[in-house]
Amino acid sequence: MSLSHGQEIEYKEAFALFDPTNSGVIQPKAFSDFIALLNDPELTKNVKIPTQPMDYKTFVALMAKNHKGAETSDDAYGALFRNINKDGSGNISAAELRAALQHFGNSSLSEADVDEIVHEADVSGDGRITLEEFLKIMQKSEKKLRGEHVL
């Protein structure tokens, strides 16, 4: 199976998000949450959630086999944004971001850490992250993972 550089980065980002302890495996519940988060009915229907923790190689094989790949990074990030934005306001608050990070097992971030993330992403300075701001910060993160220089 041959992945494009972009797919490799997307899969690494996704795997890292659901492996917050860097154990090298994703638990079945976290994988189930990830599939639900993608909000792709066809993927949800086709993917069999494993009963055992899966390593990165297994994760990539499952995703490459079942994900049609037509979705761009921005599409995936948009779906992630909508899932984090629980109140449907069109903005992510620090509380919503904190809840999402804790839900996916990244509870080690302090309130100050989450506030710093919001501050970095919040270009308008209103204390909330818009979809446009969210996409920019995610694209910046993606560039960092690829080793590109980011301003």
TrEMBL record:
CDD domains: EFh (cd00051). Keywords: Calcium, Repeat. Transmembrane segments: none annotated. InterPro entries: Centrin_CML-like, EF-hand-dom_pair, EF_Hand_1_Ca_BS, EF_hand_dom. One of its GO terms (molecular function) is calcium ion binding. Residues 6-41, 72-107, 109-144 form the EF-hand domain. PROSITE patterns: EF_HAND_1, EF_HAND_2. This is EF-hand domain-containing protein. It comes from Lobosporangium transversale.
